[in-house]
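Support reply, case 0932

Customer input (verbatim):
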Amino acid sequence: MLTMKCLDCQEDLIKIPTSHGPELDICSSGHGLWLDVGEVNFFVEDYVSLKRAIGDTGGVAVRTETLCPRCENHMEPETVSQPPFLSCDSCHGWWLPRGSLTRLNETCRGAAVPIQIHEAELYTQAAARYRALNDTFHNQPRFTEKRSDRQGLWFWVLFFGLALAIGGIIFIAGVGQTMRTAQWSRPPDQLFLFLAAGAIGGFGLFVYGWIVRQRKRLIESIPTSTIRSLALGLVEISGQAQPEEHLLSTPFSGLPCVFFSYAVEEHVGSGKHARWETVAKGTSEQPFFVSDTTGRVLIVPLGAELILPDERTYRNNWLGALPPTTIAGLNRLGISTERWIGSKTLRCRESFILPEELVYVLGTAHAHLGATELVENSARLYIGSSRDHEFIISDRSEKDLLSRLRWQVLAYGAGGLALAATCVSIIFKYYLTTVS
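Our regenerated output:
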C-alpha cells in the first residue's frame, strides 16, 4: 500500500478516522492534510459553490515544483483560501495546509445541517498516533508493528491459504495416484497447453460464480427500506434519481444526467498482437439524491460498484469518424485523437443515470457530521461506501438485478465447471492411457 509523505517535512502521513466520514491522511507535525478525490464532500457544506469558486479563479498558469504525494504528478495552487491549497490534475486530490479545511468550511456554508470541523483535534490525534507507533516500533519486535490493524486480514489470509494448501495436497495426491496407473499416449503439444489453460480458466470462472452467488444472497437478504425509515448501517433503497444542485452532462454525448462513468480505449498493435488498451476512465464526483414517496436521501457515489448496462459507445475507424461532441469530450479529458502519423483508433464508452430514472442502491447509511436525530433523513443521513459492506448503484430494479445475477451464477458456476471438466476429460482421453 502506498504510504504518502507530508509535502513539508516528508514524514509519513498518519491515517486518522473521522466521525461519520472517511479516514484522512494527516501530518503528525501539523503541516497539513490530504483529501482524496470526492472526500471534500464530507467537510464542506456547499460543495457546488466551492467547485464554482475554483473554476472562477482558474488556478495558476505555472505549475509548482511540488509533486503529488499520491501519484507524483505536478500540483497546482488554488487561491480560494489563504494560504492556497494544492490540487492534482491527475488523481484530483487536494493538499490542504493547516487551517485550510476550517476556512473552506467557514467560507462555503449553506447546507440544511451545519458541518462542524474540529481540525485541531485531528492534528492532535495524528501526533498521538505517531508517538504510539514509534513506541510500538521501539518496544516490540519489528514484525509485530501494526499487528492489531491487520489481525483480521491475516486471519483470512491464513484461513484461505490453509484451505488452498489442503485442497492442493488432495488434488496432487489424486493426480499422483492417477499418473501411477497412467502413461502418456502422446507427448504434450500446443493443444495440450490450450486444454490445460481452459481447465484452469474454468475453475477460475467457477470461483467467480461463487462470489456472484454470495452477492446475490446478500441482496436477497437485505429488505428494501423506505427513505423515511432508514437507519445507520447497511441499507437497500429504490427510487428516482435527482440532481443535488444542477444536472451534469455526459462526457461524449452531452446528455443531461445526474451521474456518469466513462472509459476511453485505444486500439494498439496489429495482427495477433492487436488489443484495446484503456487510456482513461472515471466517474462523476457530484453526489445526487434518490427519492421515494417518503422522502429523499443523498448518495455519495465515491467507491461504488456500478451496474449500468445501458451504455453508449462511440468509435472511429476506416468506416467513420467520432461525433463532434465526443471529440470535444476527449479534448476536455486531454486526449488527442491524432498520432504523429494518421489518427488513433479510439473507443469511447459512457454509462449514465438520467434524471427521474429509477435506481437501486445497496450501501451504508452514514450520519452527516453534526447531525442529530431530530432532523429528517434527507438532511441527517447519506449513503456511501464502507470497508465492511458492498456498495452497489444500478439503474435496474432489484428484480432485474437478481435475475441478471442468477444467470451469471449459472453461466460462471456451471459453465466454469463444464469447461474445466471437458478440458480435463479430453486431456485424459487423448494424452493419457491407463495401464494395469
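We compared this against your earlier run and they match. Two observations from our side: The CA atoms of residues 373 and 407 lie 42 Å apart. The first strand starts at residue 14 and ends at 16. Please reopen the case if you see a mismatch on your end.
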